[in-house]
Structures are given as C-alpha cells and as structure tokens.
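Troubleshooting log. The previous structure file for this entry was overwritten by mistake, so regenerating from the original sequence record. Sequence copied from the archived sheet and checked twice against the printout by T.R.
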Amino acid sequence: MFKIGTTLTLQLIDDDNLQSTYRSTLVEYNDHSLFLDYPIHEESGKVGFFLDGTQFKVTFIGEDESLYTFQTEICERRKLNIPVIVVPFPNKEEMYRIQRRKYVRVEAALDVSVHNIIQEFSPFTTITVDISGGGLSFIAPLQHEMEENNMLEIWFVLPFKSGDVTYVKAAARVIRIWESEGKKRDQVSVEFETISENDQQCVIRYCFERQLANKKRGLL
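Regenerated output below.
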C-alpha cells in the first residue's frame, strides 16, 4: 500500500478540530514505523516543526489510486539521510478507504495547449473544464476539425496551493465531443494514453488538493 516517495497530506489536529494543512513525503518505512520528511505548510510553504505527541489526520493516494486516511501522532524525530519525523505504521483497522473510484474528477479551469499528433489541424490553446488522473475535458475552438479517436498531444500547467507549479505533457485520445448546454462551443473529453508516472501522480495530487478545498468550502 505504501510506496517510497508518496506524497501525504497532514492535517494538524488541535482540540479535535482539523486546523492547518501540511504536505510531506514518505522517505522510508518498516513494519513498525513510517519516516516522513519535515512537513511543509500548504499555503505559506514554510517547514513545520512539531513536538512528539502532535496529532495529525493523514491522507494519501495508495498504489491502487484510491484515497486512504488514518489518524496518527509523532512518536520521535530522527536523522536518516535527511531529518525525518517518525509515526507508527497504521494497522488495517486504523486505515479508512475514502475513495473507491480509480480517479477523482474535479472541475478546474487550467490553461492547456492542444496539438494534433499527425497535424490534421492547427494547434490551439484553451482552458479545461475538469480533470482527473485519467484524462480531462476542455472547451474547443468555435470552428474545429477534431473527431473522436483523434490522437492529441497536450500540455497543461498545475498550480498547487504551496505555490509550486508543475508542467505536464501527455498523449491523449479524444473519446467524446458534444455541445455544451447553453454554450456555442463544443466540449471535448480526452483520455490519457501516454503520461509519465510522475506527471500522473501530480495530476492526482492536484485533484485531491482541489477535492479537499471543496470539502472545506462545503461544496462536496
């Protein structure tokens, strides 16, 4: 379930209320402990320093692409190749699977550049309507020549709450084209055919971050 390099979201628990959100990475683990690099605050980008016994709600994306959560606390700090915090390895009874679909789809208006791989039409830029780890949809130009099963090369930018920006490139297949209700432009859904594992994990992380933000605002 756990994989070295997995990004974890840590929500600080204070008096039974979820407070600030931090981001950390799984550096190492064994049968008893998880070793995480020092958490970074999602909004300020500053490193958080916490005492032993500090409690967190941890959420992460498992190798099966599902979302998992568990509650934990810092039991010690240690120096490996880098300074880390140590938390107990969660029991199965303490772990909750909170998302059973393979990919979470969220609404998002992201800049995207679209190219036809065999140059059947001119490249164009537009914005996305929604995105998931498996694909996205975007608004087509007023006059376009796209058809279902066209192969596209797309570039888009993922802005994270921390201020980090990730540029993603993927090959995608057009799976559906339809007229958006109340709009003059078509909407196009594409499915990622070729995308690096790192880029896909960034997309999933972005979707998860958006989902958490929507939950906080009461939109989910």
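The domain at 6-97 is CATH 2.30.110.10 (Pnp Oxidase; Chain A). Archived copy saved in two places this time.
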